Amino acid sequence: MRKNAKAMGILAIAAMMTVISACGGNNDKGTNGNEGQPTQSSASASPSPVVEKEKDEITLTVQFPKSDNVVEIPIYEDKMKRFGEKYPHVKMVKNDWWYKSDEIGIKMAAHQAPSGFYVPATEGGTLVGHGWAADLNPFLEKYEFANDFNEKLTSQFTVDGKLYAVPKNAYISSIIINKKLFEENNVPIPSLDWTWDEFYEAAKATADPAKGIAGFAIMAKGNEGGWNWTNFLYQAGGAAQEVQADKVVSTFNSDAGVKAMTFMKKLRWEGNALPQNWALNYGDVYNLFKQGRAAIVLGESGQIEDAVNNGGMNKEDLMILPMPSMEQGGPHVGVLGGNYMIVNPQESLEVQQAAFDFITFDMFKDSEIDVLKTVLEDRKAKGQIKAYGSAAYYYKANSEFGQKFEALLNEYPDNVYKLDPKVIEAMVGIPEPAYNGQEFYGAITNVMQEVFTNEKADVKALLDEAAANFDNEVLSKVTIQK
To answer: At 347, is the pLDDT very low, low, confident or very high (cuts 50, 70, 90)?
Structure first.
């Protein structure tokens, strides 16, 4: 749901980190607001940039942190200063509006949106369909790192061969397990090629309701619930929606959707594997995990980092696995989401170019490597770790930048948690729903809550009703680009 970025420390690097942190706050994974403010890279240690030749002055409206975001403001100020040194013809004006799905239409109609701004992965179809995102191909033709972007991420905003957004920080949902709880209950550690049946048995066997320990803690309070559930919808071969002629319609009430929701029902009522108080939000789930009261949660490297640095857990007790497949030999599918940067198509071409240059200013640069080294030195001094390893970094692992990044990590073996490359290889990411994804997540959470409350709930009937209502109230208003 990465429409919001989690609050991170001043040394956090949004372009190098996945954007899920378990410390509460905003993220783009199924919360109601889209006003997240992803962390920028601080690169004050980089060499002075080469100044562009004199050009006519243009005005670039820069998306800027809100006044109470004391962590991010100096980072943005530094980036603007360095950008201004290289592009003196660009006058920068701050704009503290951050994307909200219920405000974007108003902002675009009033021509009040920044020249470039963050958007969650869920908004691709809506933005492109309304013509609210500029085609970036003309700028990419002149960009030296155009071929170094991770193609797993660019597909989310690619339409008819045109890229409409730059990936900044992203993720593919995976599974985190507390190996200690598995060992205490004599439950085998799952293999990388595990299935729903194995997932169910592990969650059931590690649960101890009398002690307040859940085998599996899933989010089921806010939009996060629908976001979590969509992983299982995808694993069952389903989709949230599809475009039919000139309209978008719901498909989550398919046989795959029924299978996925029935599996949730089985975990709740037959396996008794969920927390007794299952109405948990994002922060609740990870707090439960850090307390040693949940054996399995959905997440990724950000939660490993938080569990060790803030929860006092031992990194050797934690393990990341790919999502289970529904059946043996099937794909290990997880939701692919995150934060992207788009260029405002209402601006002149000169301003659009400046916006693209600002968005990509520190990407693929040694300045980011310098910041990573600062982070690692800080973690080493504090006895903390930096979790690293994802199928969803903005750059290709085999790019020159990716290799430099990896080489530096290898210098800090005690302070880095790295995913098993086989886990990364097994992970398959399917993008979040492109149209009104956050509203979809909320609709699904309502179904989950009924299923978790009522043992006799009719899963098919609930999904059919939710799909009909969602089509009528939300998707019927979607405009499809011709």
So the answer is: very high
**CATH number for the domain whose boundaries are 174-335+431-477:** 3.40.190.10
Instruction: Strands of 286-370 (E only): list them.
Output: 294-299, 318-321, 332-343
Of all residues in the chain, what percent carry a pLDDT higher than 90?
Answer: 68
Whole-angstrom Cα Rg for the chain: 22
Under 8 Å between Cβ of 302 and 17: yes
Q: Which residue has the tokens 């920044």?
A: 114
DSSP of 436-454: SHHHHHHHHHHHHHHHHH-
Residue-level pLDDT at 253: 98
Report the predicted TM-score, pTM, of the whole model to 2 decimal places: 0.77
What lies within 8 Å, CB to CB, of 106 at 6+ separation is none
The count of C-alpha atoms lying within 13 angstroms of the C-alpha of 437, restricted to the half-sphere facing its C-beta, is 34
User: End-to-end CA distance of the chain, in Å?
Assistant: 27
The gap from C-alpha 43 to its chain's centroid, in whole angstroms, comes to 24
**368, HSE (Cβ side, Cα atoms, 13 Å):** 24
Q: Which residue has the tokens 């909320």?
A: 442
pLDDT tens-digit readout, 47-61: 444 445 567 899 999
Q: Give the Å distances, CA to CA, from 406 to 74, 128, 318.
A: 28, 35, 21
pLDDT tens digits along 376-426: 999 999 999 998 866 668 898 889 999 999 999 999 999 999 888 899 889
The DSSP output letter for 115 is S
DSSP string, 409-473: HTT-GGGEEE--HHHHHHEEEEEPPSSSHHHHHHHHHHHHHHHHH-TT--HHHHHHHHHHHHHHH
Chain-centroid distance of CA 161 in Å reads 23
Q: How many CB atoms lie within 10 A of CB 131?
A: 12
